[in-house]
Structures are given as C-alpha cells and as structure tokens.
Amino acid sequence: MRVMPDSDQMLEFARSRAKELATPDLDARPRRRVAVLTCMDARIDIAQLLGISQGDAHVIRNAGGLATDDAIRSLSISQQMLGTKEIIVVMHEDCGLQGTTEEELAAILAADEPSPPWRTGAFEDLEKTLQASLAHLRNSAYLPARHSIRGFIFDPRDGSLREV
Length: 164
Hints:
The protein is α/β, with parallel strands linked by helices and 164 residues long. It has helices spanning 6-16, 18-21, 46-50, 69-82, 102-110, 126-138, and strands at 34-39, 57-62, 86-92, 149-155, 160-163.
C-alpha cells in the first residue's frame, strides 16, 4: 500500500476546507498594526503564544528569527504599505542555530554542493544575538516606525516568555 506524502495530505486537507479558510471580508492590513518576527521552529505557535487571531498581525518567520535583510524587506512592506506600527521579535531557547559557528553550519549546508552565498546566522549567545537584531531593526532606514520594537526569548520547555 502506497502512503501519501505528508505534503499531499496537508494539501488535501486544505482543499477540503476551502470554504472555511476563505477570508473575503478580512483586510490585508493587520487589525492590531503589529508585525512579529520569529523563528521557523515548529515548536513555536506564535498565535497561541501571543493570543493573536487571523488578521491581527503579520508574522514573518525565518531560521532563528533574525533581523536579516529579507526580514527587514518584509517588515518594511508591512509598515510602509500595510500600516503596521510595532514590531515584536521572538527568539527561543534551544534554537538550532545556537551553539555552532558560521563555518560549521555552512559546511553542513554545503555538504557536496558549493557553500551557500548567504550567512547562516549561527550564534553562541542568544540574548546578545537578539539585542543585535533589535539594534539592526532600530537603525534601519527602511523601517519608518522604529519607536516600538521589542524583543523576547521563548522557552519551549516551560512555555515562558521573557523580554530582553
């Protein structure tokens, strides 16, 4: 018996719920005028964590929840075109990028291929990395609303969230 791949199962589920998923009355501008930058880690349910619902906030996810150029591109569009005024950055304990070096991680990603042209974002100190991301956002000329940028560390082991 052939087992359907997980992605096919997910897509079939989405197709079966199209009417429930439709949001014809929901605006692309988030109701709460907040953008959240967080890690792609599957343990982080950002809606549950922050008590937000569909349509409340923009959520941008990447490896580490780092303020990369691409994250700033998305945050800039969120602010300049879609009206967000606040940014929340959520990083987390036990992140896969933590505790290794840029060189080690690039070597793993390269394997038999050429090294990636981008930084992996490996880091040692979680709090310092979050502080550096916050400073990068606060100093970005591409973000007109820089007065409310806050950073937090989530611990998936106990569910706690602390501000940095």
